[in-house]
Design goal:
Layout: H1 2-13, H2 25-54, H3 57-79, H4 86-116, H5 121-131
Helix pairs in contact: 1-2, 2-3, 2-4, 3-4
Amino acid sequence: AFFANKVEHESKHCNSKGFQRPGSSTFDRVYTANQNCGHAYPTFLAMLWCAGLLCSQAPAAFAGLMYLFVRQKYFVGYLGERTQSTPGYLFGKRIILFLFLMSVAGILNYYLVFFFGSDFEMYIKTMTNAISPLLLIP
């Protein structure tokens, strides 16, 4: 809602109808940042659900909240100079990678239980609980 509100505000600020604003670099930055965030959220939601269902809910929820804050930082950084959005982008990639690895670990554990009867769920949960605070390191 914050992103859409910013796009609407910039659209009204340009005093024109529609979303085609030739020559408005501020509007272009806001609109592009909104589109980038909109394209990244489906991947994030898929990784969040898979990590939460297949591995552990608490670290997945923590990583999800961190991702939302990081995307906010990316969006606000994108409104300034383009180099200000780079830390938010890289941090978001790291969180998506963490959620992906959690999903893979959950899937591997399922197949280990199914084929070999070995359950490593407690080890995986302990590892993800221990690693998730490391996401706070920039």
